[in-house]
Design brief:
Layout lengths: L8 H11 L4 H8 L3 H9 L6 H10 L4 H10 L17 H13 L5 E4 L5 E4 L4 H4 L13 H6 L11 H19 L2 H11 L22 E5 L2 E10 L7 H5 L1 E7 L2 H8 L6
Antiparallel strand pairs: 1-2, 1-5, 3-4, 4-5
Helix pairs in contact: 1-3, 2-3, 9-10
Length: 266
Amino acid sequence: MTKAAPPQVGQLLREWRQRRRLSQLELSLRAQISSRHLSFVETGRSQPSSAMVLRLAEELDVPLRMRNQLLLAAGHAPVYTESSLDSPRMEAVRTAVRQVLEGHEPYPAAVVDRAWNIVDSNASIALFTDKVAPELLTPPANALRVTLHPDGLAPHIRNLGQWRAHLLGRLRRQIDASLDPVLSELHDELVAYPCHEREPEVEFPGPADIIVPLRLRHDGGELAFFSTVATFGTPLEVTTAELAIESFFPSDAATTAALANPTPLP
């Protein structure tokens, strides 16, 4: 059986352009090259320089990891390094992340990588993980799996259908933006988990809602949160570019008061 040839850089660039819904003319104007030159690159009649690959990738908002793949496909060396978060050169990044996590106490916060694996968290994240099966928390614990698995947080989420639809929608948008096969596999796993609540096709607010809330059963009542996501603004390294800090805030006065004296989930 003949092994399929790896895709050429022109083919990959065309796929990214089509995914971004740009014509050749629109992309060539943005990249300040002729549409004829771009056509030659996409069809393989012209081999782009590394500078040209990076210019087109910038205009197409291609993630750094995928920019390295484009460079390799064009016969050039990758330019964006990828380092373990615990490596010495990442000390400044680790320090910044720790400051954000600790400064967010007493509210939960966690840092995830591109595949939603939890790489760090603050002490208050225990509010979410106390009732999760231990095997789901074995590193690398995946935040989406921990949340939606039937042995995870899912049984404690009062609006599971709504929150599940929200998370899967975020994941689909991430897949659409990155074309990452790892995320596609994760999505296929998550949608197979059981959910006995209706999942809305479109997110719409309930009474007084301004943000999709996470509603948790707690001590005979409920805790309600909304979340924000922070990323590094000017990353030039793959690991840093793919980190996201998700911080949860109380969405009502009762949750704020409860977190002043936290108790485990029942």
